[in-house]
Design goal:
- The chain is an alpha+beta fold.
- The chain has 3 domains: 218 residues, FAD/NAD(P)-binding domain; 124 residues, no CATH class; 71 residues.
- 35% of the residues lie in helices and 20% in strands.
- It has 15 helices and 24 strands.
- Strands 7-6-16-17-18-15-19 form a 7-stranded mixed beta sheet.
- The radius of gyration is 24 Å and the shape is globular.
- The N and C termini lie far apart (60 Å).
- The relative contact order is 0.18.
């Protein structure tokens, strides 16, 4: 139309979600919660089509999503076999035999005008600083296998910041019950055709195998990698990022828990990629993300099975993907959320967050009587920017490495990287300063931990840190570490926390 608006007949009140799984049911739950009056929300999924659903690790923003829905944390953890996550341990990424923790929450304590890490860098020069993780309560509690909600016992020390590990299939089922109780209508069936308006090209409905047609005004594509509406029907296009993120396959398998379920995720570097470990109450989720140009599927499966906590509970399940994003996440009257909008390997546990942020953007730009082109353009700009900044953060893990043991790692170390990332790395390496744009997902502390953990450590920090006396620097660092050590010693174990608050009945945890 000349004014750039899509004008349906009457206000846009009929929303159809295509696809279930985590993305579909998170979307349905949020829409049923916040659009409870005057809207019709339908979800179409086929029991015959599997979902990606594996053990999922999350970041703390998921707590905001659940809280917004009014979900009780303990009830949710019981229902999803969930455990607590305080951070991610990276093993072998900087070099074989190395490890570091990207922990949630603050690191150290800022002093005056400067962030803590400038004093830490000065302490390293003086030889009085421990590893960076020693000044993170989250990192220390994670390594000690401890957790408690709420305030600390030490004045001035912030409490633990946590996220979750949970079974994605159980989470989707939990949200399905939530959404259906609030009026979401679920239709089971395989989609065989997509109906479009002959004049405008807008989607008008999806036709099922039994002949029924589910009609709507706004469609949310949660059909996974396939992108049934956004790509197969509307041809949004895909921006391929495999020149930086070469891993294009994964094998996933659950195994029996042979050890305590730790309150952190582990990502272990392998010859052609990396392996995840996600501890749940009833089992451990595992996966091997790898480059098919450097390792065969059989080799990848063998590597995964050789590095499990306990007995494999199924055969490894293969997944294929291409890192990147749809060129437009919103086209005409279709919004893509979840894997249909793009994919980044789950190295920093961003998959569910990207669903969550996509839902938040959809609500922020929810159309009234028309879908305005300017709103669609801004939605797409924000979606692209978010994925690109997360992309750079993930590339950092591969680029900043000293590994030379395989061709895969040598190519990652030597590859050209986006200018946006190269500028950040150069700034930190030269001055200790961290650039972060407003609203960016990963904080300065997140960038700090990964930069330092991967071996990018400036020789000196801000000159103002040098104005504090040498003895004062040593005392400041020592007192912080001592306070964290005391606090951790008084925390209950993670296993005790689960047993006392949210143990799933079937596990006897």
């Amino acid at each position: 139309m000349p004014d750039g608006a899509i004008r349906p007949s009457g206000p846009i009140r009929e929303l159809v979600i295509v696809g279930g799984g985590t993305a579909g049911w998170m979307t349905a739950a949020a829409l049923s919660r916040f659009l409870e009056h005057g809207y019709r929300i339908r979800l179409v999924e086929s029991d015959a089509i599997g979902t990606i659903g594996v053990g999922e690790a999350t970041i703390p923003q998921i707590r905001l999503f659940n809280a917004g829905l009014g979900i009780d944390e303990d009830d949710f953890l019981r229902a999803t076999q969930g455990t607590i996550k305080l951070g991610i341990e990276f093993e072998g990424w900087q070099a074989p035999g190395t490890r570091y923790m990207h922990a949630f929450g603050p690191v150290g304590r800022d002093l005056g005008l400067l962030p803590f890490h400038h004093y830490w860098l000065r302490g390293r020069q003086l030889g009085v600083a421990d590893a960076l993780g020693a000044y993170s309560l989250n990192a220390a509690a994670a390594r000690g296998g401890r957790f408690r909600r709420g305030d600390t016992q030490t004045q001035g020390l912030p409490g633990l910041t946590h996220a979750y590990h949970f079974d994605a299939g159980l989470y989707a089922a939990y949200l399905r019950r939530y959404a259906e109780a609030r009026g979401t209508l679920r239709t089971e069936g395989r989609i065989t055709a997509v109906e479009r308006d002959g004049d405008s090209g807008d989607i008008t409905g999806v036709r099922l195998e039994n002949g029924d047609c589910i009609t709507g005004q706004l469609f949310i594509d949660c059909s996974g990698f396939r992108g049934l509406l956004i790509e197969e029907t509307l041809h949004a296009g895909y921006e391929d990022w495999s020149q930086w993120l070469a891993c294009d396959r994964a094998m996933a398998v659950p195994c029996a828990s042979a050890a305590d379920f730790t309150p952190y995720t582990r990502a272990t570097a392998r010859p052609a990629g990396w392996q995840w470990r996600i501890p749940l109450q009833h089992r451990t989720g595992n996966g091997h993300v790898y480059s098919s140009a450097d390792m065969s599927d059989d080799e990848a499966a063998a590597t995964l099975l050789a590095n499990l906590d306990g007995e494999a509970l199924a055969d490894p399940r293969p997944l294929r993907f291409t890192a990147g994003r749809r060129r437009s996440a919103w086209v005409r009257n279709v919004v893509a959320i979840g894997l249909s909008s793009g994919f980044l390997e789950p190295l920093e546990s961003t998959s569910i967050h990207l669903i969550q942020s996509g839902i938040a953007r959809l609500l922020a730009f929810l159309p009234g009587d028309a879908i305005e082109a300017s709103a669609v353009a801004e939605f797409n700009r924000q979606s692209a920017w978010e994925l690109e900044t997360i992309r750079d953060f993930i590339i950092l893990h591969y680029k900043a490495t000293a590994r030379v043991d395989t061709a895969f790692w040598r190519r990652r170390r030597d590859m050209a990287i986006p200018a946006s990332l190269a500028e950040r790395m150069a700034l930190f390496a030269a001055t200790g300063r961290i650039r972060r744009d407003h609203d960016e997902l990963f904080t300065e502390v997140a960038w700090l931990q990964v930069l330092v953990g991967q071996g990018v450590v400036p020789g000196a920090g801000h000159p103002l840190a040098g104005l504090l006396g040498d003895d004062d620097i040593a005392g400041f660092l020592a007192s912080l570490k001592a306070a964290i050590d005391r606090e951790v010693a008084g925390l209950p174990s993670h296993r005790d926390f689960i047993r006392q608050n949210c143990a799933a009945a079937a596990t006897g945890a």
